[in-house]
Amino acid sequence: SGINGTTVYLRHLQFEEPLYLYDDTSVPFSGKVFVADTRYPGADGCMIPNVKVCLVQERKIGGVLKTNETLVCGETGPDGTYSLSVIIGSRVDHVELIYHGHEFIPSPESEFESGRVTKDSYYANNDFMDIEKA
Fold first, then answer.
1. Which of 53, 73, 69 is nearest to 61 (CA)?
2. pLDDT tens readout for residues 37-79
3. Which of 71, 72, 73, 101 has its CA at a distance of 20 to 30 angstroms from the CA of residue 83?
4. Residue 83: strand pairing partners
């Protein structure tokens, strides 16, 4: 130590250890959730807020499903829309929607397709409808 500062030697490089890099670049995955049979010309239908939306990747070993991994979750906004960031290279096998035990299916206009997420694809219009009648 002294007037010009202190010199401290650190061992910060390990040349014989592997270096792991992870890329978490993501793309938006979005859509809307509405009540089935409420659409008519000029209207998008009755949107549902506060639906929990999760993107799920199935984990298989030897072709046998072992477990599901939830990649990301979020909720629909007041207008029934959602947008989730999903990491490029992930695989979205299905979308799980949770709302008071209701059952959801992709809408006829939905563009959802299961598969690997790539940087050059567009993941919007992943729309789902609530088919509960009570």
1. 69
2. 998 888 878 999 999 999 999 887 777 777 889 999 999 999 9
3. 101
4. 30
Judged against a pLDDT cut of 50, whether residue 1 lies above it is answered with no
Identify which has the larger pLDDT, 119 or 74: 74
CA distance 121 to 29: 10
Nearest to 79 by CA among 27, 30, 131: 30
Cβ density class 1-20: b for 16+ within 10 Å, e for less: eeeeeeeeeeeeeeeeeeee
For residue 15, the one-letter residue type is F
Tell me what pLDDT residue 14 has: 67
Torsions phi, psi for 118 (to 5 deg):
-120, 160
Residue ranges with strand state E in the chain: 26-35, 52-61, 64-75, 81-87, 91-92, 94-98, 104-106, 115-116, 128-130
Half-sphere exposure of 15 (CA within 13 A, CB side): 0
Decide if 53 contacts 82 (C-beta within 8 A). yes
Q: Does the predicted TM-score (pTM) go above 0.90?
A: no
128 neighbors 108 (Cβ within 8 angstroms): no
